Amino acid sequence: MRYFFDTIDQTGARRDPIGVDCATATAARRLAREALAEMFVDARDGGDATLVIAVRDAEGSPVFEGRLVYAER
User: Fold this and answer.
1) Percent of the chain scored above 70 by pLDDT?
2) Are 7 and 14 in contact (CB under 8 A)?
3) What is the pTM (predicted TM-score) of this model?
4) How large is the C-alpha radius of gyration of the chain?
5) 7 touches 68 (CB < 8 A)
6) Which residue has the higher pLDDT, 40 or 18?
7) Average pLDDT over residues 37-58
């Protein structure tokens, strides 16, 4: 099944127009967690950040949303 991974980071929101084939919803969630970790590594240094990845299925129904909040103290 095809899943779409929409993201929000410090530069804005992006809707995934292509998607990725994953065998199961669990595999899509795992891929989303990996992508969220990569987003954090690639995030700009300095300041607070909220990173979001929202996964939807081919029908557009939400499957998973991951959110990482980074706050400097």
Assistant:
1) 100
2) yes
3) 0.88
4) 13
5) no
6) 18
7) 89
The pair of three-digit structure tokens given for residue 49, joined into one six-digit string: 């950040």
| Exposure letters 9-38 (e unless 16+ CB within 10 A, then b) | beeeeeeeeebbebeeeeebbebbeebbee
Residue type, 13: A
49 band by pLDDT with thresholds 50, 70 and 90: confident
DSSP string across the chain: -EEEEEEEETTEEE--SS-EE-SSHHHHHHHHHHHHHHHHHHSPSSS-EEEEEEEEETTS-EEEEEEEEE---
